[in-house]
# Entry
Amino acid sequence: MPTLSIGPAGAVRLPDGRSITFSSAGPEDGFPIVYCHGAIGSPRWRTPALDHLIERLSIRYVMVNRPGFGGSDPSPGRTVVDFARDLGEVMSVLGHRRFSVVGVSAGAPYALACGSTLAERLVGLAAVSPLGPPDGVAACRGLRYRVPLLPFGSDRVGPALARVCLRTLGLHGETPTAAMIEDYLVCRRHWGFDPADMPVPVTLWHGAADRLVPLAHARLLAAAMPDCTARVAPGGGHFFYSRSLAEIIGSLLP
# Structure
């Protein structure tokens, strides 16, 4: 297999020629925690609260962009588990043999894929406000879950609707619409692994007031995994991760 190399400006060149970009913060010798971003990518992944926590805990916080996001090359036909393998190669190039992973919302399936594929390298694994799989014992096909995803997958409606949502979030021009749509569609295909076969412990965090991914869906996913602890934030919505950074990230330290 060709030797992996670190390219310029935070990019890793993979053996198949694709580039995967990443950003990082904190001391280079700090314990690495990988953040798997949500569906809109990572245009605002740094916050003052996160920077303060990184400094206080002396961690190396690494954000890896999925294909199509942040300059990472597309990967047509990819599955969720394919990106976990890419992430593992990126971390090897960066010199991190052991690390923890946290995935938020649409990033949570990718974090879980790391548990399935990179089990021997993980110290901790957290899935926050996770989307569930489209099949298997953890699948939930309730109307409330399907409706937000279907329009984005429509060739006629998807791009325009996605742009409206991004403008509403103040992210117009910062997130590739096509990448966001593809990312949702990847999550709605078979992930390439079964959460019921998860070989490592998982902590699942969810807001009881989440209107995008109902708590019942998260409970199904948690129940499907052999060793999963579910922690529910009573008043938390879908985006409560930023308000629970210290608790969630603190749980991932060795």
